[in-house]
Amino acid sequence: MAAALDISAYPPDGMEIRLIERFTTLRGRRILEVGCGDGRLTFQYALAAREVLAFDPDRASIEDALDEQARLGIQNVAFRLGSVERLPARGAPFDVALFSWSL
Amino acid sequence: MVHALRRAGQRMQPGGSLISIRPHRTWRPSVAIITPAGRVPIAQLNNSAFDRRLSSAEAALARVVAEGRFTLAGVRNHRYRARLDNPSQLRTYLELIAAPRPRFPAGRRAHLLEIWRSRPRGSKIEIAESIVVTALRRR
Fold it and tell me: Three-state DSSP class for B8?
């Protein structure tokens, strides 16, 4: 059987984080991520963040993110199915909001 | 998207950062064959349906700034490249892009295959894409 191809249509790991950190640090921050998909970007910064709330409207993507979260043993990320418009207007404020490939 | 930006803004600290990462609207994905002798440009890919979404996203970001909720902190463009071994890998790459996917202009995929058939040893297919990062600061 042929080896699995390591092809991704997204930027190489770390590139987006380096670009984000030209504007703000993610370290120790409370982060809202909109359009997290399967957590591809989330898992690149989660260990540095204080806490992450990540939304995506695609159920399969959120299920993949939860599986990967369990595999990695990451505790400070809450993945939520749905749109960010469901986020209550009141609550603890976020330091950073990431709209990652979210249009 | 403007509603999502407003809702996020409601829950952000004053001075907090809102970061939008998205494909660049005018720097279209491009395909080339890289040979030991140089780069042979093949095509710039089209994605008119996606272009409309990108325009809407830019308008939404501009709108929340105009509303006074945010200030523009900066914009960065960046290009990245993937090197692929053959046209089959290019097909896989394009299938991994969320719909609506970019497409070759008429005749350019055939042109790629024609050039590829006569490629020198060691050639690769390169796809170059661009992203833009916009940073807004919560007032």
Answer: helix
